[in-house]
Design brief:
single chain; alpha+beta; Phosphorylase Kinase, domain 1; Transferase(Phosphotransferase), domain 1; three-stranded antiparallel beta sheet; 17% strand
Length: 321
């Protein structure tokens, strides 16, 4: 795949200023819109050489991208432009500021509260997409999830690089699904539309939470569909969340939690439990300080000295002056 050089300007508008990441069959660049200085975007270069000579296919592809470009949701990078350049599909998307989740996973310590909040925010995004019947255009995995400085979770963009694989000359193939091996359940691999439901996307969210707390990527497991109990990976992972993930990541979808509502209820219960654990611990630290005899003696000495100095200052200002 020919890589565009830094400084190249595409469509007389988008100047390449750097490479964001390289994927199989596509490259994601950082670009600047030269019509508006300081206006930065992300730009996908996607290999569609297999279909480039089919006008029907290209029309169907552009029709799908046009549909997605009209969707405005602040948790997903918006598609702003698309065109063909040198035989490649070029798609320009909104730049989402923040840090990719796959970078945070291995640079932070295990934090159950943050993991649950991540899951709840992903669930919010998935529910929106599911209700709009556009969930099959999104690839949820740590390389596409961005977290900003305020802890807000967003999706980098629709699964732009994989959308060409579900388009045919007859239109959108509704029996094919977008996803990444290791994060999607077996029913998506089987293209089994009948068995795709809320439990499918609960599995995907759970796989991300699992990696977040265990630091164990799918590529380090022998079987991408086998998840060792999270509590067996690290003793500090509570059994409550470990059991929930084990249920939601079951190979058999009949054994999983069935609805978003029930999954959200379980996550909120864990979040409440973790919050209650954190608050008393802070209180115990304060209580232990108060009970420390040496600390109290030093505190009283300093307090008495402060009072004496205050009295002397008042005497100086009100009596001697």
């Amino acid at each position: 795949m020919e890589k565009f050089q830094i400084g190249n300007v595409l469509n007389n508008r988008y100047k390449i200023i750097g490479t964001y990441k390289v994927e199989s069959g596509s490259i994601l660049y950082k670009v600047e819109d030269i019509r508006f200085i300081g206006s930065n975007w992300l730009m996908y270069q996607i290999d569609i050489s297999e279909y480039i000579n089919s006008n029907i296919y290209i029309n169907n592809l552009f029709s799908t991208l046009s549909f997605l470009s009209k969707i405005v949701y602040d948790k997903i990078g918006k598609i702003a432009d698309f065109f063909i350049e040198k035989g490649y599909l070029i798609v320009v998307c909104e730049e989402i500021n923040g840090t990719l989740l796959n970078e945070l996973i291995h640079s932070s310590s295990i934090n159950i509260t943050k993991a649950v909040k991540l899951g709840l925010q992903l669930l919010e995004i998935v529910k929106f997409l599911y209700d709009k019947n556009i969930i099959n255009f999104v690839d949820i995995n740590p390389e596409n999830i961005v977290i900003d400085r305020q802890g807000v979770v967003k999706i980098l963009c629709f699964a732009v690089s994989k959308i060409p694989s579900i388009i045919t000359e007859k239109g959108l193939d509704e029996n094919k699904f977008i996803g990444t091996l290791g994060y999607i359940p077996p029913e998506m691999i089987d293209d089994d539309k009948v068995n795709i439901g809320q439990h499918t996307y609960i599995y995907i969210i759970s796989s991300v939470i699992y990696e977040y707390i265990t630091k164990l990527s799918p590529y380090s497991r022998e079987d991408p569909f086998f998840f060792p109990p999270a509590s067996s990976i690290s003793p500090i992972i509570p059994n409550q969340i470990s059991s929930l993930l084990e249920k939601c990541l079951s190979y058999n979808y009949n054994n999983r939690i069935k609805t978003f509502k029930e999954f959200e209820k379980k996550l909120l219960a864990i979040l409440k439990s973790e919050t209650e654990v954190e608050e008393p611990s802070n209180l115990n630290i304060f209580t232990s300080i108060i009970k420390n005899r040496a600390f109290m003696i030093i505190f009283l000495i300093i307090f008495v000295q402060f009072i004496i100095i205050l009295i002397l200052l008042m005497y100086y200002f009100f009596i001697l002056l």
